[in-house]
Amino acid sequence: MALSLHAAWISAARAAGETATPPATAAEALEKARAAYEYGDMEMVADDARAVAEGRVRPTPAQRAQALRYLGVGLYLTGRQEGAETAFFDLLRLKPNIRLDPTTTRPDVVAFFEGVRARHADEIRQAAQTRPGKHFIWNFLPPVGQFQNGQAARGLVIGAVEVLSLGASIATYAQLRAWQQPDDTFGDHAADARTFKTLNYVSVGVFVTTVVVGIVDGIANYGADRDAETLSFAIPGGLGFRF
């Protein structure tokens, strides 16, 4: 039903030779691009995505990335390869690790996209190293690296384990020092001291392990794309395939 309404709207606009009213927001422009994409009108996909990609409707970084993806595919499929290369290049500078899923994307589009990545590898790499808002050094301070990489839930888990294990190690160490006698024995608390030593070793081990895991995870996921979207194309009548 939604696709039929989109198709009717697009068909009526084209039949009347009317120019669509410029979208007021990036979300509205992307919705129009999505509707045109589902209907198979790549000209309108490019037109609606361009307003977002060029910043005329003040998009968020995620919205601009989505628009560049639409724009690149739309331009390529309408035979404007130079424009498609520019759009894909801008997308790769914004999100260097982004990929087009080969299982849901037309092979020629994927090949062209990867060709853009190869031709501009140096510029894309430099953009990844200098883009604002992200700094590689934060990966060595988990959970800051996880939050920077857009993995808030993982960051909360790592942060909670770090706080609890560090707190336990400090508390057990403080208690051991309180029980410790001048001759380095623990007097009447000898049995308790053995238990607290074990707890202290375990908590320190958990803390160190969590920090190491957090650092490795932060580095491994640095620059990973979290906004990837699969674009689909459906033709009237319900039969569909994917680019």
Average predicted confidence as pLDDT:
81
Strand content: under 5%
* Protein structure class: mainly alpha
| Biggest sheet strand line-up | 1-2
- Measured between the Cα atoms of the first and last residue, the distance is 22 Å
What can be said about the biggest beta sheet? 2 strands, antiparallel
Helix content: 55-70%
Low-confidence stretches: 1-6, 15-19, 227-243
**What order do the SSEs take from the amino end to the carboxyl end, as H and E?**
HHHHHHHHHHEE
Radius of gyration: 27 Å
Count of helical segments? 10
Number of strands: 2
Shape assignment: elongated
Topology:
Elements: H1 2-16, H2 26-39, H3 42-53, H4 61-77, H5 81-94, H6 107-119, H7 121-130, H8 144-148, H9 152-179, H10 190-220, E1 232-234, E2 240-242
Antiparallel strand pairs: 1-2
Helix pairs in contact: 1-2, 2-3, 2-4, 3-4, 4-5, 5-6, 5-7, 9-10
